[in-house]
Amino acid sequence: MMAQFLEIKSGYPDALLFYRMGDFYELFFDDAVAAAEALDIALTKRGKHLGDDIPMCGVPVHAAEGYLLTLIRKGFRVAVCEQMEDPAEAKKRGSKSVVKRDVVRLVTPGTLTEDSLLDARRHNFLAAFAEVRDEGALAWVDISTGAFRIMQCPRSRLGPELARIAPREVVVSESSEAELTELVTDLGAAITPLGRAAFDSTGAEKRLCDLFSVSTLDAFGTFSRADLGALGAIVEYLDITQKGKLPLLRPPVVEISQAAMQIDAATRRNLELTHALAGGRDGSLLSTIDKTVTAGGGRLLERRLSSPSRTLDTIESRLEAVAFLVDESLFRADLRDALRKVPDIDRAVSRLALDRGGPRDLTGIRDGLGAAAEIAAQLSSVEPPRLMREADMFLTGHDALVGLLDRALVADPPLLVRDGGFIAAGYDAELDEARTLRDEGRGVIAGMQAKYAEMAGVSSLKIKHNNVLGYFIETTATHAEKMLSAPLSETFIHRQTTANAVRFTTVDLSELETKILNAGNRALEIEKRLYDSLKAEVLSNAAALGDAARSLAELDVSAALAELAASEDWCRPVVENSRAFEVLGGRHPVVERALRAQGGDPFIANDCHLADGSDGADIWLLTGPNMAGKSTFLRQNALIALLAQAGSFVPATSARVGIVSQLFSRVGAADDLARGRSTFMVEMVETAAILNQADDHALVILDEIGRGTATYDGLSIAWATLEHLHETNRCRALFATHYHELTQLAGKLDGVDNATIAVKEWDGEVIFLHEVIKGAADRSYGVQVAKLAGLPSSVIDRARIVLDALEKGEREGGAAQKALIDDLPLFSAVPVQAAPVKTAPSVLKEKLAGIHPDELTPREALDLIYELKSLEND
């Protein structure tokens, strides 16, 4: 057996081998050591190899999916090796014969299909990148849904596109593995190298034609050599991992990069589009706005947020559908109720195609198509907009398939085919007979006994059973003479004579005995055959089912965004082909939701007005203290632009958004120590990417450029960056800074305006009003913010002394400033404080302390004001 294990393992050196032994998958040698540690299970031993103990561990077959998920998440690949014959067959070849085994599947991050291994509301993409000379292409597929995409992608665009798609695994050529490993793994994906032959465009074209059963790919579009290489590598890798059983893929769809807003990885991370900075989905924009009720709708919404459109017609059709459903609240409620009945049709079809499905996938498709027909009936009662009319076209026409599945399947089937009992009674006469014999065998025998007793005229005739004869007819010797004589002897066949009775059989009884003994297995075999026929019928309708699933997802997203807009008081944005960006009463959806959940202060809405269509850049230079809301203001406007182009209403009183070609965000501070990058270096790398790429239709938000280095270095970098955005990029931008010197640029550069966050000082404290107003801040209030953060009072007092000295020195000139710094006692952490001066109690304060405003009448309040005024004068 170990020889067989080692032989099979040699073909999969980079994977853990799950070696089937009865009811367990066993792992041996180094595989066992690695798996035991990763899964936290016991490591044992089995026999010896070359004189050493063989490490071993195992997992039950029925619970293998959970262990697979853990291993995949920890970066392992798993080769699943099954028994290819019954152990009894192996014994026929000799007592020491080994059961035939072979790998039936290679489980990798990008090739998962089981529900338990996948997030229902997220795609699980496998991508492949190919290059032919200077031309690059990126293909990606979700084998759990059949979605297949291809786009031209030079290597310079690979990072942003992978960040948009978020694949779990990326296939690359062996020759480029070293160059691309860091880029791919930084995005959280596994990288898999394949030989150059997998990317050969000629071989790829043949593989694709074979996959889709066509003689040419012309019907699917025009593909470059790089396109064919990437597509072919995907198919080759699926052939390797699925052991020749390819999933049901839709024809490849060509995507155009210019059709979507370009967003790089840093911006996606900074804006927390689909994942929060803390990790996970909670706290992201997606989790805040997701009100979809179907798995397909959830995946579509994530795609929309990850890839907002730049095509005005597409955006308008989506907004039109949302607006219709906002106005039609009762229809929207009924639509969402119907959508809640829709299972994940795409993934059910995919599992069936890969022979990993079961009866519940068939009933899921039946129920989903039933819900689709119900929704189509609802749509016929209204005048829906274009997008919904187009979706409606694919919701009907499935009556034959629904009728078949409805007749064939019970309402609530078991999970697995081998459990049986999923075919409805009355669908197949042969199955009904087998079930009757299995479940009511005694009744059938009793009926036959009565028939034979009447035929022979022997009321005492019995049908009995023993382990030697099986079923037999028994009567007394007196009555046996009649049965041994013609014409009864032609029916009753003598089998045995005992001292007290004579035993007979009949042809019918022998056949019935065989049927009863095999009824259980026969019923299950018939159900398996019927399951295969139903599965084949479903797969023959796969294209129509895919269209229906996409239409249902489209309706779900439109209804969910309408529900969001209605419940959160969002407005329909005006999206146009211009450079305008005008938002009135804009809000940050995530922060607003968090404030509401905490029961705190309401979110303060703010306006933003950038370019109005005239030539040149339009930049707001935003100053003000930390904690006042500058970063929130920057982010909320970026999210409003993104939401508008994704086809959603936006959190504002009104919004006018000129198409944003690129969205860039440089907000927050983070280092990258693993790659030797300080916080400042990360800041500069991200800023460089913006300045080198942003065009005149980009929207850029920058926060505190230059803060990671010395003051004058930082100020000069921020100054030059702002000038470059204005003069070279000529884009729309929000530029937040602490360098008040930059506010002078508003008077020198036509496209720059100053704005600030309003604050109010009261009794030595700073109050943040979170209101954005035109103008420049005169100070940063850093010491006050430090006080709010809880720094010790001694540190705050010391900071005030140093700040006053520095500001005085700055006013008097550089030499005076240096002298003052030299005079400061640097290690006086706790300055000597004067003895507190006792002051007389304030009559005014004592009077105010005793007043209860809620108890005053208007006349008493007026009298009190005069009294307090007189006390002040005293």
Would you write up a description of this structure?
With 874 residues, the protein is of the alpha/beta class. It folds into 6 domains: 2-107, DNA repair protein MutS, domain I (MutS, DNA mismatch repair protein, domain I, 3-Layer(aba) Sandwich), CATH 3.40.1170; 119-259, Nucleotidyltransferase, domain 5 (2-Layer Sandwich), CATH 3.30.420.110; 314-426 and 530-565, MutS, DNA mismatch repair protein, Chain A, domain 3 (Orthogonal Bundle), CATH 1.10.1420.10; 429-519, MutS, DNA mismatch repair protein, Chain A, domain 3, CATH 1.10.1420; 569-787, P-loop containing nucleotide triphosphate hydrolases (Rossmann fold); 843-873, no CATH class. Helices cover 46% and strands 18% of the residues. The strands form 5 sheets. The protein has a 7-stranded mixed β-sheet with strand order 13-23-24-25-21-26-27, with helices on both faces. Strands 3-4-2-1-5-6 form a 6-stranded mixed β-sheet, sandwiched between helices. A 6-stranded mixed β-sheet has the order 11-10-7-8-9-12, with helices on both faces. Helix 14 (345-353) runs antiparallel to helix 15 (359-379). It starts with a helix and ends with a helix. One of its GO terms (cellular component) is cytosol. This is DNA mismatch repair protein MutS. It comes from Maritimibacter alkaliphilus HTCC2654. Keywords: ATP-binding, DNA damage, DNA repair, DNA-binding, Nucleotide-binding.
